[in-house]
Batch of 4 targets.
Target 1
Amino acid sequence: MEKIKILILNLVFYVMFFVFSITSIPLMALLGLLSSLVFSKRVVLRRWRKAISWYGKIVIYFLPFPFVQVKYDDLSNRKEKGPFIIICNHRAASDPFLMACLPYEECIQIVNIWPFKIPLIGWGAKMAGYLSVKEMPFENFLQKTTKLIEEKVNIISFPEGTRSNGKEMKQFYSSIFRVAIKNKCSIVPLCISGNEKIPAKGTGILQPGIIKLRRLPALRWEDYKDCSPFILKNRVRDIIKKELEQMDCGI
């Protein structure tokens, strides 16, 4: 019975994902092109990023349902003001799509090089201004992220660099924390649990399950202003690691 569920999940999901992507992304691009004739580049970017968020919502909430369900839990103080640098653990290739759960008007992601190589999706990410820290000197990266923060754009980062092998977290890279310190930006820890096999590392096969995301209270500049990038990255990593241990136990 379990094998039948897996077969149905993957067959239905990938067929629908392919059809949805090759129809929706070109349509989004056409609407973006028409919008650029009327609106400023800044307005078009904002709308493009919002469209990507809606695309992600359909991919994670609708296409794999009911075999895969996504639950988002917000433990933040609603009075917190952005823009935020959102720090996530990285367990699966599905993590970037899960960012559509976040209730923010405008976000970009710091990604590895490989997502840009995915047909249509990679092009859409580039058009939205997604960044790869590995493809540019840090000074250029700092300049681009600073500009985004000034424009009130939230930045999502997976500082492990590549996905972990299961539930064990890798060490964090420092670049995004140097950006946070430079801009005195609030940092939001975001924990992702349950998608270690959605899909498992080394395979594209999806397993049924429940994915949980938990948004923790932000660390404000006043909370970490005396930290070096090294201390700050380990502090945030420890916060996420501790919360994940509870989430993995069903707490």
Note: The chain has a mean pLDDT of 92.
Target 2
Amino acid sequence: MATTLLKITGLKVAYGGIKAVKGVDLHVNEGELVTLIGSNGAGKTTTMKAITGTLPMVDGDIEYLGQSIKGKGAWDLVKDGLAMVPEGRGVFARMTITENLQMGAYIRNDTAEIALDIEKMFTLFPRLRERKDQLAGTMSGGEQQMLAMGRALMSRPKVLLLDEPSMGLSPIMVDKIFEVVRDVSSRGVTVLLVEQNASRALGIADRGYVMESGIVTMNGEAKELLNDPRVRAAYLGE
């Protein structure tokens, strides 16, 4: 039986008086690539912020590794193996690519292993190797997205949360990002992927959840959702 690493039950989150998330249930099993899709404003990013403790929940619970993480801060969660690549990338603009990757390993003290992992990131993202001494703020959006993913992977997460990694990128860069997400998943990292690009996300995921107006309206195997007429009409323009 599959081990559930992340479980959300009855999650409610509000901004002021506005209920952004209205009772979401979802789970991610070990080794899975699960995607949460939905249009802009559906509550996907709010859900991610609640998982990482950057937004307080009004009601419900979030369990990670079988324990409630309600009220835990992002610092503690990273130490426990839960890392997030935020929407908008959030790289350290005035630090070099190498320094950004080193920052991703700030919870670690195994210096030799950190150096090996930086080398692995340069293999995974050859573009970063070419620009390793460049300031992160001077790179393109796609390059910054690669760096943000590499930085998160430097913490050696058990679960990687990705919030809209393809947003604002060129089609070629979108291809690259989805290729990397699939590669990371195949290496044994459990992934929860939030995406507006429903067809691409469902194309690489094991399972999916569809979110509308703060609630999950559908869930199931990714291939089934990809072929569902309601999903195709709402998100694939058919």
Note: The beta strands are 4-15, 18-29, 33-37, 59-64, 67-68, 82-85, 159-163, 190-195, 207-212, 215-221.
Target 3
Amino acid sequence: MNIYDVSRKAGVSIATVSRVINGNSNVTEKTKEKVLKVIEDYGYTPNAFARGLGLNSMKTVGIMCADSSDPFLASAIYYLEGDLRSNGYDSLLCCTGYEVDVREKYLDLLLSKRTDAIILVGSNFVEGSKEKNQYIIDASQRVPIAIVNGALDGNNIYSTLCDDYNGVYGAVNKLKESGCSKILYLYNSKSYSGIKKLSGYLAAMGMDPKEPTEGNDYVRFFNGDINEVKDYLTTLHNNGLEFDAIVTADDNLAIGAIKYAKACNIKVPEQLSIIGYNNSLIAECSDPELTSVDNKLEAVCSNCVSTLMGVFAEQEVPLKTVFSAEIIIRETTRF
């Protein structure tokens, strides 16, 4: 039996059944008794959807991410789900991949489930053109949209992120202060966050972030696993490119750089300094332990959830919150 059967047998609307289930006082005693008798006679157990009809809330938040096997995204999901649960909300997770049309379908799916809000995890959801972001803006007219690690302007869109520009800018300057001059930047994403990080590197090196980087030997885009990064850097080294430091856009790339140094008998940090990004668990597990930029992921996720709770409570909350990054110094740098 479902709520529709109860409605039919009691001779009342679905909304009335839901009001009874939720203890709404705006129901006559006679009607309430009639509905409760049907529920008792047929052993009906209300589900979340039935409760939501009366409360105008499913107590459920949708979470979308591109790839839950990615360590950064997996950690974000862990923090978000835990914070939502502690606030009495369930989560629905969709792993969307990177194609905009697929993401739009998943967003429509979560909207059809009557979620109270939707969280987009990762700056890759923010595209460079307004047209590709329009489906998110349209969805924000129906429910609050929260973005973790990215920013998009909109009246019902709430962005929480780390200052990736200054995170990389500061890391490069620390390397320069320690005596490094030939600093290679290795990145694997052209997302909102990826562009901010690249701009931070270019600015710290005295280059114009608005100028194209093609032909710049010290700016390298490479998307591969740890061993492929090692082989790629070995090839650059064998082709005569000299560098005394490497800054990477995530920790996995930096671990590949450590493996490259070991394969080529290069001493870290005496001959080569290495800085990763995200301060993930792998930074502490590497040998030597990796200096990494902490993007405050746990705090970002906690703030994202608390912002949504404020929205639900009809409080005034900021549309954009930015956290400062912090360099966690370990064994791969000389400072």
Note: Residues 71-86 form the longest helix (16 residues).
Target 4
Amino acid sequence: MNRAYAIALNAFREAVRDRVLFGVLGLAIASLAFGTSLAWLSVSEQVRVLVDHGIVTISWLSNLVAIFLGASFLYKEVELRTLYVILAKPVARWQFVLGRYLGIVATAVVFIALTAAALLSVLVFVAAESRAGSGASESVLSVIRSSRGARFAALSVVVLLGTLGLAVSSRAKALAPLRAALSGAGALLGSIALCGLVSAVSASVAPDETIYVLVSCALAVIEVCITAALATLVSSFSTPFVTGALSLGFFLIGRSTGAILELKARQLPAEVLQLLRVVAEVFPNLYLYVPTRQSLSLAQGFAPVASFVAQLATYGLAYSALFVGGAALLFRRRDLT
């Protein structure tokens, strides 16, 4: 497993240096800014509009990141001929596949954590301003001052962002270990910690919406595991373009399985309708990972929500293991000469 971890770490470092990833992250920030504009166009549902738009943005873009990285996981290694150097060492092919897959998932988790932190940061201001507009004389600063945990979290966010900015911008040799950590597992842990600290602040302003965002992001991580595994499976035997097209098609089918299972169209022949239902039964139902407020309201309390997430995690990890195992078997039989 140490070899798979080393490959995953190397794949993660390559992915975070990709300019396309920064472009998608910029697109996510722009979409959140657009969601803020949409929120203020509504009369009394500013917070709800912002959160719903932000969750849709995080869900779709994180899966696109997973598909993009999964489509090119083998092509770049073959083109640059680094794959032959890796496989010449005592590294099994299944370890290479597993390592690249874990690197893709880690990159998508960082993306989700950063965009969730941005969404929760905007949520703090929108929720405070919404309260002020409804007659409650509260501002962002007053809310933070009224909560000791929020004050500590806000101070921690400022210190963390300052440290990260200093480490990235400075060329001092003393900060070299910190910069190295930011390009490895430290970036994953740091982004999750940042999201947790920002959620502590937003929970003091809009607790229900914060829980909804965190649960949705947790389910988005599980969905990304399935999407990345599927892209890895297709990439093990095809080209990047075909992998991207097929993975996107499979993702759209997975998002539509819930509607297919409930389809009762009289215009379709019975054979076609039966075929669609068989396809829906075989493909993972990704629509489950886009929870509605009604579905979460039926599971009020920590234990029911945790059980709900745990069931979907078991379902998603089973499909992910199946797809990654299939990718390892196909890649083992692939002729690389």
Note: DSSP finds 15 helices and no strands in the chain.
